[in-house]
Design brief:
heterotrimer; A mainly alpha (about 240); B mainly alpha (about 240); C alpha/beta (about 220); A: 6 helices; globular; B: about 240 residues
Chain lengths: ~240, ~240, ~220
């Protein structure tokens, strides 16, 4: 991507950052002050408006990373661009994965009585998060850019494939050893909660999309810098 | 010669030379077994000699040892070929990449089995596995080991290719390997514990689902390996 | 000698090669027919080895296309390619712990050739390794390893051979042996592409490709 265009993309998406943050703040306001406390959990349940959206974002971006990787392998002409997109998507998957783990754990303490309970969803997020970490280690330890792109794309695909596999296996595992201790309120929740949750999820997805576009431009710029450091004749 | 015949020949060639290399460097096999023995004595020290008599710990320890053995073995999967540059030569003959992958997977399944059989003996002795447990395990253990090796071997072979050009292979391979193969571990441990008469299972345990998992995961990753085989072996 | 109809063994179209982000050569197009020999020349670091590796599918070109015997290798690999092609690297590729015979067996079987022990011993004698057939490849000198690969091309007669510095480590007689082996192959219709600094080998090749012309 030419430098001028990249700058334009960057400043364009930075402008979108503000409305996306405002929408998210509105969502959180609704979740914190508009909705009443839960009968069983009290105010603790409000973390759902942060936890569920970030968890969704984590999985959406891991899936997106794999889709980018597959497109890159199928359409060889777009391999480089798709690799940059995969990189940015995995970055988001890592951050949102970490947030989902943290919020899930914080929520688990008052509801389950423990910080961690090997719940299938949380465990799947943990495993996915670990693969995302491995992706970053892999990138930083593969000096050749071509090999780095190749290996990164393959790991992105493997990470996404692994998500349902881990989810199902942990599900069977948990049902084997002890019944699931915790069932989400989602199904039986009041329509208001459902609505606010939807607003928050949409807001977080939009926000993450804007962050993705900014990060995507940053990844391209980082590579440009790396190329400049390596010297000569960048196309 | 038809393409299919050539594929089979090349697959066999990779397998045969991998086996022959082990025979020429027997120390690598013996070393792996000694490593497994070291692990086998680790658990009694860690959990105490009484606790390891417990059925769950017994089976868990066996499969945990296997995990480490697989990680060690797949890290060396392409060593002989890459050290001598023979892999590059072989790829230059336009060999179908999936033939190399399948040959290596076939090899690792049998190689692991050759380490696991003496390990099994050590396990029986060190962990005082009662006779009735062995009888009820006898029909399950061999298919379980083969499928476990197939699944972990496939994932390991894929990752050995992915990490081939990174400078921190020793960190990266296990880092990617363990999260990707955890469903196989869960399935193997669960199936082994289920066939142990010392453990009373809850009604309606999902033996069927575990076998599906045990079979499905290798098939899934084999399919991914075939689809990505051209990319896996490319710089 | 039978009359050989020249056919296109190798064709690359407007390829660009990169190391990291740096272009080595750009817009390089070239075709090699059966019975032809070409030398890739140029100073160190211009991408001779990289070019050979890309032409046989070990590494990927950044741009452009490569065809082997009419079948595409890059950007889409056509897996139906049954053409026998091989790349002999500057460091002879060997199973270090295996014997000379075992290595030769692998080489021949990799191209689907039969492993005829009598012919193999004859070839080993010709390259001066008759006494070393049971020796471990690790214990061979660089020149001997090179001779081993010469015995292989003598026996296998691949249709397309890419060689990287094939005279490195060879003594005067060895260089002559290398040239005569390649000449025999060429006259039987093989296509030969070498990357070299050796003047003798350069002179022997019909075409010379100076990579400097394609450097950016």
């Amino acid at each position: 991507m030419p430098q001028a265009l990249r700058d334009k993309t960057f400043s364009l998406w930075v402008k979108f950052l503000f409305p996306a943050v405002v929408l998210q703040l509105v969502g959180w306001y609704l979740g914190l002050f508009w909705i009443g406390a839960d009968k069983d959990q009290g105010d603790v349940f409000r973390i759902i408006f942060a936890h569920v959206p970030v968890a969704w974002c984590a999985f959406v971006w891991i899936l997106a990373a794999a889709v980018f990787a597959i497109i890159g392998f199928v359409r060889k002409s777009s391999f480089e661009q798709m690799d940059q997109s995969t990189h940015a998507a995995i970055d988001l998957g890592t951050i949102f994965g970490a947030l989902a783990l943290a919020t899930g754990s914080i929520w688990g303490r008052p509801t389950w009585g423990v910080w961690w309970d090997w719940d299938p969803r949380l465990t799947t997020t943990l495993v996915m998060f670990l693969i995302c970490c491995a992706y970053h280690v892999l990138r930083s330890f593969t000096p050749d850019i071509q090999a780095r792109r190749n290996a990164g794309q393959i790991v992105a695909i493997l990470a996404a494939i692994n998500v349902p596999v881990v989810y199902f296996s942990v599900n069977i595992w948990r049902s084997l050893h002890q019944p699931q201790t915790f069932v989400r309120k989602g199904g039986s929740a009041s329509p208001d909660i459902g609505m606010v949750l939807l607003v928050n999820t949409v807001a977080m997805l939009l926000l993450s999309f804007v962050i993705f576009k900014i990060r995507r431009a940053a990844v391209a710029t980082e590579e440009h810098l790396e190329a400049a450091r390596e010297g000569r004749n960048q196309a | 010669m038809s393409a299919a015949q050539l594929w089979r020949r090349n697959c066999w060639l990779v397998f045969e030379y991998s086996v022959r290399s082990v025979f020429l460097r027997k120390a690598s096999w013996a070393g792996t077994l000694a490593f497994a023995a070291c692990l086998a004595i680790l658990f009694p020290f860690a959990f105490g000699t009484e606790l390891i008599q417990k059925a769950e710990i017994r089976h868990g320890a066996f499969w945990a040892i296997n995990e480490f053995v697989v990680a060690l073995s797949v890290a060396r999967l392409f060593t002989v070929e890459t050290e001598g540059g023979i892999l590059e030569y072989f790829l230059s003959t336009q060999v179908h990449r999936s033939a190399v992958l399948f040959g290596k997977i076939l090899f690792i399944v049998l190689y692991l089995l050759s380490v696991q059989l003496p390990l099994l003996l050590m396990w029986i002795v060190f962990y005082n596995v009662p006779g009735n447990v062995l009888v009820s395990l006898s029909s399950t253990l061999l298919p379980l080991l083969v499928l476990f090796n197939l699944g972990t071997g496939t994932i390991g072979a894929l990752l050995a290719c992915v990490t081939a050009r990174s400078t921190a292979r020793d960190i990266l391979l296990p880092l990617l390997f363990y999260p990707l193969q955890m469903s196989i571990l869960l399935a193997a441990v669960s199936l082994a514990t289920m066939s142990d008469p010392a453990i009373v299972m809850l009604a309606g345990t999902s033996e069927q689902s575990w076998w599906t998992m045990m079979l499905g995961v290798p098939v899934l990753f084999l399919a991914v390996g075939v689809l990505l085989s051209n990319v896996l072996f490319q710089e | 000698m039978s009359q050989v109809v020249p056919s296109e063994l190798l064709k690359c179209d407007s390829i660009e090669l990169r190391v990291g982000y740096r272009s080595l050569i750009r817009k390089f197009s070239f075709a090699l027919h059966s019975g032809e020999s070409a030398a890739v020349v140029g100073p160190n670091g211009l991408g001779k080895t990289t070019l050979l590796r890309a032409l046989c599918g070990i590494s990927r070109p950044y741009r452009g296309s490569v065809h082997l015997s009419g079948a595409m290798l890059w950007p889409e690999k056509n897996d139906a390619v049954l053409l026998d092609v091989c790349f002999l690297a500057s460091q002879p590729a060997l199973f270090a712990e295996h014997s000379v015979l075992s290595n030769l067996e692998f080489y021949l079987r990799s191209l689907g050739r039969p492993f005829d022990l009598q012919a193999v011993h004859l070839a080993l004698k010709e390259v001066g390794l008759a006494e070393s057939s049971a020796q471990t490849a690790r214990t061979l000198s660089t020149g001997q390893k090179r001779r081993l690969t010469l015995a292989f091309v003598m026996l296998a007669k691949p249709r397309l051979i890419l060689l990287d510095e094939p005279t490195n480590g060879l003594d005067v007689k060895g260089v002559e042996l290398c040239l005569s082996t390649l000449e025999a192959l060429r006259s039987e219709g093989s296509g030969i592409l070498v990357a070299t600094h050796d003047q003798k080998l350069m002179n022997w090749c019909k075409h010379q490709i100076d990579l400097k012309e394609w450097a950016p």
